[in-house]
């Protein structure tokens, strides 16, 4: 069947078309809002895409959820002899999809299920009788014949810990599951009108991926090596015409999230998904109000990661179900980290789903209050599944939290604003000079020092040389003499490395203890989170006013990350940093 012979219908249906050699798409379609979760709120319907590759062996990718079980299987039966199906590949599992899977498996008793290790564990718990038919991927290639070699890439995120993408070398189609989708229902199969999809794509990203931008970036890195020509997502149009642009958009949107001025750690656990749905709605409220959200599914994150995020965030929100009168152990651990690590000036929030008593929510709220944290919204308690009204309330709570966070921040910087009103115009103009934000590292035997500076520029081509202006109080005595060595670490926009070296840092005396470093050839430290570094030797220095101008030649340098841009220091006035 060709993509041009498709029909339009406004009741639920399954659209079938060929999208590559031996490859069919089954688009289970609804023009109505499928569920009440925030991601469906634009009311443009959606498609649940499943794919069938029929070579010497046959593989079915991602059967839809239970809303479509019956019509999907009816349509599938028209194109596939069920007794010949060899594999069912799953990009993720959830109870909704398991319902369709259960019916399907009863009709294809010979098929093997291919999925990630966490998905295999979940399926074995749900269907112990299927254990021998479940195969977790291990970097192996699945050969379906006729050039269809399937390779698998695990893409775990807080929301889909079991995420898996599948790549077919014969068609160069990458089956991306939850990545690169959009909730929109149309007859058009591909993305010819990709500009018209921008709004839906962006909204889908914001709802599903913005709170897990860090993990999505890791996934993009892994997938970039495959050289895919087409993305076949779980929802919305197949991406054929705008693959590069869409990939670039994902990168930019991830960067955009991470470079927001304010960030909130959203810590949660959810055994049955109710608390997770609330977490997503709260995240939406925060993101729509310009706050970055770092989602932490406490069942998956390790303590070091929680520690790092809780330490650097501006606000924190904890969500928990109540199970047997308690919060799950992972939430208790996370709460312990918050109480010991997070500054008491950080704004906090609490939410959760419960059945009858809800002790976990009360416990978290009282511990935070006792420790003197201010709550950024009134604690949200929900019995079992949240209703659309409750989700709306969660979203509003996220928005309210964001506004509170901004107010707190404004209050703290109000002194600075008052001063600015009196700064003369020359100083304001001088403040428009900007520089790359860098950390200069020096070494005195076993002692390492780091100085944050943006007063830096290239000074010569031949030899390659730089100029730095350093104040006496910056304590940079190890770079004042010809022959002194240092490393210039050029910071990356969107990372928060600067806070370890700021004069107002409360993160301890040794900034390097919190950072990943390696030693340069000249013995000083390279920050692995920098965008690039330069190893330098001081040639000359000149005392000028309240600064020393230091000229140094560059002995060696390297770019550590090809993606991303240099962090810049913007100032309102030339009279202070
Ligand atoms: C094994 C089990 C134990 C539970 N114990 C409690 C409890 O002690 N108190 C309570 O209020 N709810 C209890 N519940 C209800 C859950 O808190 C409720 O189902 C909640 O929606 C789960 O949230 P989640 O979907 O985010 O995991 C229990 C549920 C299960 C399955």
From TrEMBL:
Molecular function terms, GO-annotated: electron transfer activity; FMN binding; oxidoreductase activity, acting on the CH-NH group of donors, NAD or NADP as acceptor
Keywords noted in UniProt: Electron transport, Oxidoreductase, Transport
Cofactor: Fe cation
InterPro entries linked: Flavin_Rdtase-like_dom, Flavodoxin/NO_synth, Flavodoxin_CS, Flavoprotein-like_sf, Metallo-B-lactamas, NADH_oxidoreductase_modular, ODP_dom, RibonucZ/Hydroxyglut_hydro
Signal peptide: none
Residue ranges annotated for the Flavodoxin-like domain, each copy included: 264-402
Keyword Oxidoreductase in annotation: yes
Gene3D superfamilies: 3.40.50.360, Electron Transport, Fmn-binding Protein, Chain A, Ribonuclease Z/Hydroxyacylglutathione hydrolase-like
A Pfam cross-reference name: Flavin_Reduct
PROSITE patterns tied to this protein: FLAVODOXIN, FLAVODOXIN_LIKE
Function, as annotated: Mediates electron transfer from NADH to oxygen, reducing it to water. This modular protein has 3 redox cofactors, in other organisms the same activity requires 2 or 3 proteins.
Similarity-based family: In the C-terminal section; belongs to the flavodoxin reductase family. In the N-terminal section; belongs to the zinc metallo-hydrolase group 3 family.
Protein name: Flavin oxidoreductase
